[in-house]
Structure formats: structure tokens, C-alpha cells
Amino acid sequence: MLHAIITNKAGRSLGSGEVNWRQLFAASEDSLTSTIFGSLFYLPVELFWQIINKSCYITSLTDDNPKIVSFDFWPHWSGSESYNSRLVEPDVFIRTKNLDIIVEAKKYDNAASPQKLDQWQNEFQGYLNEYGEDSKRVILLAIGGIENVLPEPVNIKDKSITIIKCRWINILQEVKRTVNNLEKSKGLLNNIDSSLIILNDIIKGFYIHGYLSGAWLEDDDFHKQTRIKYTTLNPFFSFETSDINN
Q1: Contact of 2 with 200, CB cutoff 8 Å
Q2: What is the dihedral sign for C-alpha 180, 96, 142, 233?
Q3: Do residues 172 and 206 touch, judged by C-beta distance below 8 A?
Q4: Spatial contact of 75 and 88, defined as CB atoms under 8 Å apart
Q5: Checking DSSP bridges between strand 13-14 and strand 17-18, what pairing results, if any?
Q6: Residue range 99-103: average pLDDT?
Q7: 179 burial type by CB count under 10 A (0-12 exposed, 13-18 middle, 19+ buried)
Q8: Between the CA of residue 204 and those of 6, 22, 237, what are the distances in Å?
Q9: DSSP code of residue 211
Q10: pLDDT at 6
């Protein structure tokens, strides 16, 4: 589907018109989340965690047993005792043997659609409703909508969760860096080609959601003219670019 959208082959007749899939994807928070994480989960687990860890600010996610036991998109958790009394729905829920990660994602990296404390509290309460008896370490990974990059604790009664922050552009830059490193290692390691296919699809996924990817820029008509500047506490990342309509 990514390739069909990029090459303008994806369309669906609605009366006399067609759906502009690029515009729909570029505006969709859920589509961005499912496209990027859905592809990341296909990677070898060590590569998955390397990309996520290096994309986070200050604190990395660590686990002595990194094998992913399960992952769910938009799980439905009981909203009992939360601000949403009926239902809590995080974007992604990742479980390893020793660690649970709640992912709350926003479409844009800046504070135009900000992360919110009450939403973090709701999702932590929903987690406690479902898994509180497991007594596992739990982290909430907040992607996009970042106003500051410092980790934050959220407490509910005698329970505590750490909010670790990340921007989508960090993930994109780390994916691109990984592609470059793997390209240099071709012939030295097994399964590089399959990982490169997945990583390049992730870059394409960012592209159709409006993120400059450093590729396919000759077909850039669906981007809006914007200017993005990030100077972060992540030592791997300092980025400034302009997106210019043709």
C-alpha cells in the first residue's frame, strides 16, 4: 500500500472523484502510529530496541529480557477510577517478560497537539485496572506533542510510572542512520537485506505522513510549506530543515 500511495496508484472512486490517500494519511494520527510501529515490530528485536532507545530523550528503555511477548494497537482497558469512567485506549501496548510499555502518540512533534497529564493518568489507571496485580516495571512512552524532553513521574496512590519522551522525527532520523550503517555491513551479517526492506518502508511511511525523509523529494507536492527546527538534549540529533512546495 505504501508503494501504491507514493507512486499515485492508490485511488478509490467515489462518484466522480477519487480519495486522495496522501492527504488522508498525512492527516491521520492513527495511521502514522500503525504504519511506523507496525513496521518496526517486523525488525529483529535487538534492532527494534536500538532504534527506540536511541530515539528517546535522556532515558533509554532497558530490559534484561528484550523479547517482545505481545503488542496490541488501541487496546480497550477499563476506565474505572479514571477521568474516562468507561474506557481507556492507549495507542500501543508492548509487553516483554519484565517490562510493560504504554505508548501515547500525537500526530505532530510540536505542542500543536500536546501530550496531556490527565491522559497519562487515565492510561496509567487503565493499566492498573487491567494489569496492576502483575507488579511489573511499566513505562509510558510519549511520542510527539512534546513541550519539554525531561522524563516525568506520574503517581496514582502508591503506584508510579515514568513518562519517557520521544519525537517522531527522532525515530525517522535513527531509522535513516540505521539504514546507512547496515548498508556498510552488507555481506558481513545475515538477514541485512530483509531488515533494510523494512527500514526503507518505515522511511516511506514517514514520507506519506508528511515528514521529510531525505528521499522522494522530487514528488513533494502534498507537503505544506513549513519550517521545522529541533535542538534537543539527544546527543545524536540536531536537525533543521525547510519543506518547500514545488
Answers
A1: no
A2: negative
A3: yes
A4: no
A5: antiparallel
A6: 96
A7: middle
A8: 8, 12, 20
A9: -
A10: 47
